[in-house]
Specification:
- Helices cover 51% and strands 12% of the residues.
- The strands form four sheets. A five-stranded parallel beta sheet has the order 5-2-1-6-9, with helices on both faces. It has a three-stranded mixed beta sheet with strand order 4-3-11, with helices on both faces.
- It has two domains: 253 residues, NAD(P)-binding Rossmann-like Domain (Rossmann fold), CATH 3.40.50.720; 203 residues, N-(1-d-carboxylethyl)-l-norvaline Dehydrogenase, domain 2, CATH 1.10.1040.
- The termini are far apart.
- The relative contact order is 0.10.
- The chain has 461 residues and is α/β, with parallel strands linked by helices.
């Protein structure tokens, strides 16, 4: 397997599951890890013979595991993109997976299609043999294998997007169509794009966590990662050239991932984003801090059960699922920063909140906490918190957001300006008077009352 995006989540999730399979079941499946941007992590991994440690933390307990399933590592910039493409063309590679976050797919969240105006895609159409984007690199690997008469691989997204396999197929075949329609047809017939649902809370490493691991290991491990004990991986069983028996290491192989994806995106990720924006504004640094506030805790569960659960089709006990999520959020050993979760909001809002809001608009349901979440995001991207401190906005649309904020006065005009961003809200939501009124109502409350009091008031409405 070649995995693109050697970030903390992959190190604590897919690699752990594959390592369990290798150490406990004798599997011979291994990884070639690729980072397209950051090279420091890949260099550190190589210096450790491609091994690193994972710490599962709960309360005052820490369980360590050394991961040995990584066999090669490449950095796109220092090793060169051609070396990455050549790795994809190795005869024994059967799966290419990725965790590059939503923005790495160069797609339009509202349509799930390739963004032909994305600078990296424009570059790759002009330079298909020297690509820079994820779709371009995967496509170049497919082309090279096809030219050499090698079996196709499966392309498996492990990012938090609804129907992530469909999105991946759309961007790869969409780029192929611009270059060679015959190639696009061949990909459709021969390459599979299984969808997945992934779940594990993996916070950014802190100096405190590094120190605890150093004491336990007896040495430094710059590649180490900490996470909660819980791990879930649901995989569409649709692989063209074989796969590891991940089900023997705790994964679920199913025919349709979408119900699981929507459940996780809306109930877990949706409540996480709600707590991230409104918690950050209130001065809560971590999700566990939000859980210590009775009103935030109540709002998170109410959001899950009253506004997200009705939109789902999963054959699961959703009340038990919600309770399990609240218990996971309370884990004091997991310092999951609200500011970390708040990143890339323009890519996250459509699947975490806006699709649910559209469902309620169609079916006449209540979505006031979802509307409060949208208002919280708008207050957050204004760039100044309730203490008057600047917020560092990390978002692929950061410049456009900053321009809308700079050009409009606070209040109703600011809400209208942000709702008019069609790449996020589509054509429809800004034209829904009830939705606009509710978001505006909560935005004004946030300005006057602050986040803590607004969350409390929203529960009483």
């Amino acid at each position: 397997m070649v995995h693109i995006g050697f970030g903390a989540f992959h190190r604590a999730h897919q690699a752990v599951c594959s390592d369990r399979l290798a150490s406990e079941q004798g599997s011979d499946w291994g990884y070639c890890e690729v980072n397209l941007n950051s090279g420091e992590l890949i260099q550190a991994l190589k210096q450790q013979d491609c091994c690193y440690s994972v710490a599962e933390m709960s309360g005052d307990r820490m369980s360590l595991r050394v991961i040995g399933v990584v066999k090669e590592a490449l950095h796109g910039k220092s090793d060169g993109i051609d070396a990455v493409i050549e790795a994809l063309a190795q005869p024994d590679v059967a799966i290419v997976s990725m965790t590059v976050t939503e923005k790495g797919y160069c797609y339009e969240p509202s349509s799930g299609r390739l963004d032909l105006h994305h600078p990296a895609i424009v570059h790759d159409i002009a330079n298909p043999e020297a690509p820079s984007s994820l779709p371009g690199i995967i496509l170049a690997g497919i082309v090279r294998r096809r030219e050499r008469g090698l079996a196709p691989f499966s392309v498996m997204s492990c990012d938090n997007m609804p129907e992530n396999g469909r999105v991946t197929r759309n961007v790869v075949t969409g780029l192929a169509e611009k270059l060679d329609s015959d190639l696009a047809g061949w990909i459709t017939e021969n390459v599979t794009f299984p969808s997945t649902m992934v779940d594990r809370i993996v916070p950014a490493m802190t100096a405190e966590t590094h120190a605890a691991l150093r004491e336990k290991l007896g040495c430094d491990d710059p590649v180490s990662v900490a996470c909660e004990p819980f791990l879930q991986w649901v995989i569409e069983d649709n692989f063209v050239s074989g796969r590891p028996e991940w089900e023997k290491a705790g994964a679920e192989l199913v025919s349709d991932v979408l119900p699981f994806e929507e459940m996780k995106l809306r109930m877990l990720n949706g409540s996480h984003s709600f707590l991230a924006y409104l918690g950050y504004l209130a001065g809560y640094q971590h999700i566990s801090d939000c859980m210590a506030d009775e009103h935030y805790r109540q709002a998170a569960r109410q959001l899950m059960m009253e506004e997200q659960a009705p939109t789902l089709h999963a054959n699961v006990d959703l009340a038990a699922y919600a309770d399990s999520l609240i218990a996971r959020y309370e884990n004091l050993a997991i310092k999951h920063r609200t500011g970390q979760i708040a990143n890339d909001g323009t890519q996250k809002l459509p699947q975490r909140w806006l699709d649910s809001i559209r469902w309620h608009l169609q079916h006449g349901g209540s979505y006031r906490l979802l509307a409060l979440g949208v208002a919280g995001w708008m207050r957050y991207v204004g760039g100044v918190d309730e203490q008057g401190e600047a917020i560092e906005i990390r978002d692929p649309m950061r410049e456009q957001l900053a321009q809308r904020v700079a050009e409009t006065p606070e209040g109703e005009a600011r809400v209208a300006a942000l709702l008019s961003i069609k790449a996020v809200f589509g054509e429809d939501l800004a034209a829904e008077p009830a939705f606009v009124a509710q978001v505006t109502h909560f935005y004004q409350l946030l300005l006057v009352k602050g986040a803590k009091e607004t969350v409390k008031l929203a529960l009483a409405e």
